[in-house]
């Protein structure tokens, strides 16, 4: 099976696929797409949306569909989760967490090596439509930090002692949404959440922004 993966480094939906690939031990060709590049994803799948996985020449998107397709032994129980009763409710919780994380992390993401000046301008202009000017996100940093801290108290109730045998797709989905906070200089995870994330990092052989420096 030949795999070519088109993705952004910061994107939690792309990150969940990368983590799954690492956990499953699958080799793939990585294509990091610059954020202002509309042509590549549109030519592959008809819309500017990543991640995109090309499997033996056939492109597909939607992160969970990609993972389910690749997890032939169902080690992460992805298909069971997609068809299960808690899919909708868990996704709603992730969306809430993502909103908190993005308000804090987006102004920092754009100054990582992943972003060229052109990609930075495109990203900020697009995301400001929903979240407001990035300068206001920075101005309201303390408010957003306090909000995130409250949310993380609830997130702590969702985690468990992960290992090679009990890692689940929900762990990968949760970790991928939280990981972006590591770029925020003032943010610190609780020891419980930090240990949980670092165990998942090890199990999935994950390197968040490493490719930007290769």
Features:
8% strand; 214 residues; 2 domains; Glutaredoxin; alpha+beta; four-stranded mixed β-sheet; 4 strands; Glutathione S-transferase Yfyf (Class Pi), Chain A, domain 2
The number of strands is 4
Strands of the biggest beta sheet: in what spatial order? 2-1-3-4
Biggest sheet record:
4 strands, mixed
- Total domain modules: 2
CATH topology of the largest domain: Glutathione S-transferase Yfyf (Class Pi), Chain A, domain 2
Shape: globular
Mean pLDDT equals 96
Strand content: 5-15%
In N-to-C order, the SSE pattern is EHEHEEHHHHHHHH
| Uncertain residue ranges | none
Q: What's the CATH first level of the largest domain?
A: Mainly Alpha
Strand pairing plus helix content: what structural class?
alpha+beta
Total number of helical segments? 10
Radius of gyration: 17 Å
Distance between the termini: 25 Å
Per CATH, the architecture of the largest domain is: Up-down Bundle
Give structural notes.
The protein is α+β, with helices and mostly antiparallel strands. Helices cover 54% and strands 8% of the residues. The protein has ten helices and four strands. The protein has helices at 12-24, 39-45, 63-70, 78-82, 87-109, 117-131, 134-139, 141-155, 169-178, 191-204; strands spanning 3-7, 29-32, 52-55, 58-61. Strands 2-1-3-4 form a four-stranded mixed beta sheet, sandwiched between helices. The mean pLDDT is 96.
